[in-house]
What does this fold into?
Amino acid sequence: MPSLLVTGGAGFIGSNFTHWVLDNTDATVTVLDAMTYAANEASLAQLPENRFQLVRGSVCDADLVDDLVSRHDAVVHFAAESHNDNSLAGPAPFIETNIVGTFTLLEAVRKHDVRLHHISTDEVYGDLGLNDPAKLTPQTRYNPSSPYSASKASSDLLVRAWVRSFGVQATISNCSNNYGPRQHVEKFIPRQITEILQGRRPKLYGDGLNVRDWIHVDDHNSAVWTILESGRIGETYLIGADGELSNKTVIQLILELMGQPTDAYDHVNDRPGHDLRYAIDATKLREELGWRPTYTNFRAGLAATIDWYRANESWWLPHKEATEAAYAAKGLCG
Ligand code: NAD
Ligand code: TDX
It folds into this structure.
């Protein structure tokens, strides 16, 4: 029974990954999470006590990280400051957690020779043109646009250097935009769903033609597990499920699925430096490791996600007011 240390496991993807591992494998999971504003302990409620524990602490705490790493078979590193808009308003915690935190973890896995999988984002590659036939591949040049994506790019480069120089047993994955249950209400899809549930109108940045490549979080989870089990050490795998849609199309679909007129949204100020389009070519992951996504119908996945937010108001409501107040302070609420 392998033991996993999952950093950032009280956040959106880390908590879904923890549930996925406990449901689909016989591994045990220790979550290390600093429980920032982005964490939600309710996401980890009712997990089996004999296979799961939550440790509150930072990936920047070298002593704590060293001790935890020494007692586990592998580390899956999700912990990060993850929101672009926050990185524009205040980059400092992004540098600390995303770069120094990854460095701290790398030193511990190096010392104890523990397997590491580093979770990253397609945003390290910068954006593609709207009509560009190209997609992002592992060979695409790094060209991050925001403090968030630059900090994630930095962390990826540290992992690559620790593999090459110190023989650390690590893999990296760069995934496209995730959606699904337990995503913080600051993010695009949950923000719009919960605005409508509260009787307000969705908010589209700029003209809304920007394209994101959506993947259901459980497809991300299965891909990470596949890489952890069969990925080649030192390799980078891109994770995506051919889910390109404009933000405007997604807002219209949310409105339709929630029984509202499809033009009942507001245009608000655009995000500075707003990346135009991401699109992942996941051929390497599909052909080398045989991974396939399960949630290929975005409309069905989105409808299930809307149902989840309707049924779990107690999960998101305590975070909603502060999130919208923060957007108002940034001028991103209309
Ligand atoms: P999230 O913001 O929902 O969760 C991040 C978690 O990390 C939170 O629980 C937070 O408390 C924790 N954390 C923050 N600082 C910490 C620290 N110093 N020490 C320990 N824990 C800390 O983010 P998410 O959307 O779940 O993203 C998880 C990872 O996946 C990130 O590395 C992100 O870059 C990457 N990623 C996200 C997406 C996406 O669409 N959300 C896509 C590709 C990659
Ligand atoms: O209210 C909004 N209106 C809007 O039009 C919000 C919050 C966002 N947007 C736009 C901006 C983006 O084009 O929607 C798109 C998605 O926005 P976010 O949810 O903030 O995601 P993004 O910036 O694309 O980054 C996400 O995917 C890659 C995650 O937050 C990152 O952690 C991940 O690396």
Remarks:
- The chain has a mean pLDDT of 98.
- The CA atoms of residues 89 and 330 lie 7 Å apart.
